[in-house]
Amino acid sequence: MNKLSVFVLLLILAACGEEKKEMPKIEWDQEKSTKFNKELAIEEDINIKLFLEQHTSWEMTKTGSGLQYYIYKSGTGETTAQVGDIAQVEMNITLLDGTECYSTKSDEYEEFVIDKSDIETGIQEGIKKLKLGDCAKLIIPSHLAHGLIGDMDKIPPLSTLVVDIKLIGLIVK
Fold it and tell me: Is residue 106 classed as helix, strand or coil in its secondary structure?
């Protein structure tokens, strides 16, 4: 047992004696940041286009922010959701590769105040395009979802989201 203790101690001392490697200094400025963000946006646009080539029946409309939506089933409502209204939705959130991230259970719904909650910006924008009972597909670029860091749980950094959403209730404020 004593020999084992000495051996472990020697291993620890040897490991502590390793030379520390210095991290290379990266000079980062606004120009490099802008270039990096543009390259990310171009790559994400390409991935979205490739995804939509596989879903040709989706008649997407693209907004100025980059959100794409397709209302595939019209509801019975006549009122469009507005800022401050409370939306009750059923939704399924996946990545472009089909990996499911979140989904409401069949007997439940999610509720949030439009533009006054921390739900994804892309979902906030998309829900304002819907009327009560509408079902839609949303393609949400990462900058309207969870951006550079993801949600620290099921959504990785820089992920485009595909949201299948139904507006089942709307409490108008």
Answer: coil
| pLDDT of 2 | 65
Give strand ranges (E) for the chain.
61-62, 68-73, 86-95, 100-103, 110-113, 135-140, 161-171
**Nearest alpha-carbon partner for 84 in 121, 56, 109, 112:** 112
Sign of CA dihedral 138, 84, 90, 94: positive
- 60-173 carries CATH number 2.10.109.10: no
**pTM higher than 0.85 for the full model?**
no
Domain boundaries in the chain?
A: 60-173
pLDDT averaged over every residue in the chain: 89
CA distance 18 to 38: 40
CA-to-CA separations, 117 to 15, 86, 111, 120, in angstroms, rounded: 50, 10, 10, 9
